[in-house]
Amino acid sequence: QVQLVESGGGLVQAGGSLRLSCAASGVGNTFSMYAVGWYRQAPGQQREYVALIRRGGTTMYAESVKGRFTNSRDDAKNTAYLQKISLEPGDTGVYYCDIARYWGQGTQVTVSS
Question: Beta 10-13 vs 107-112: how paired, if at all?
Answer without folding.
Answer: parallel
